[in-house]
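note to self — DONT lose this again. spent like an hour looking for the file last time. sequence + predicted structure for the chain T wanted, 310 res
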Amino acid sequence: MKLGRRQYLQALLALAVAPGVFARQGERQYLVGFAQDTLSNDFRAAQVRQLAERFSRIPSVNFVFSDADGQTAKQIADIEEFVARKVDLLIVAPRDAKAMTPVITDAHRRGIPVVLLTRRIEGEGYTCLVGPDDEHIGELAAEFMAKRLRGKGAVMMLEGVPTASTAIARGEGFRRGLRKHPGIRLVATKVGNYLRGDAIRAMEEMLSSGLHFDGLFAQSDSMASGARLALIKAGIPPASKTIIGIDYIAEARKAILEGEQTASFVYPLCAEEAVEVSLAILRGNKVPRRRVVASRLVTQGEARSLLPIF
């Protein structure tokens, strides 16, 4: 029987949180809670799957997670519930960097170690931030775009969740990079919320307005996929545009190899690094405030041999 996404996650969760299973007698058990933004996003769902699988290998850790369904208020409530359950460590990918700062900072002040997974908050109320350098990725995307367009043209940007630090940083980096190339104009920025459906609607709105563009910077490959679908529906070959995404998922690799997407940046799920940092904290070891995870640009040549993140 084939399991759906949520059923598969729940099956992994049952293994990950089974108390005392395979644990050595007398070994202390830790409760780790992950407050995830949404499971409707492929990247975020895959992140939960990898964390559950990695933690299932650690007999002393019971792993639980929540799905805020893309709602900041729900994610705040999920964190409050984890605090009430007295988790030994909290992992969170904040949907709203500003609105979620108080609840995360409060958990940290209560003595709960906090690992921020790829997304920041304001202030210093956390233990460690794990993830790539989003601002640098945005700047590199601008440099690559300018090179592909030979320093002249109009580009648009599909933005992720506007309140998430990843979207903010990627946008700031991209704009800063474009300032070095005055011949490249950013003619439109549309919100796609890291979702295919939202990206389709955003691209359709842009196309219906008659605005011309030569290149597209999509802050995720899911949005790049939605944009390609909208272009095809409008009778515009995706290969006629320079399209850059982020994540390097399987469909992005396929599109790059087929010439329908120009490039993507590898954006690891960071589950392995998050588990390493979490275990170090639980064992009383010091960890850096920032654990930078490497990213890289992938074009057609590299895509032939480089496997996607999922």
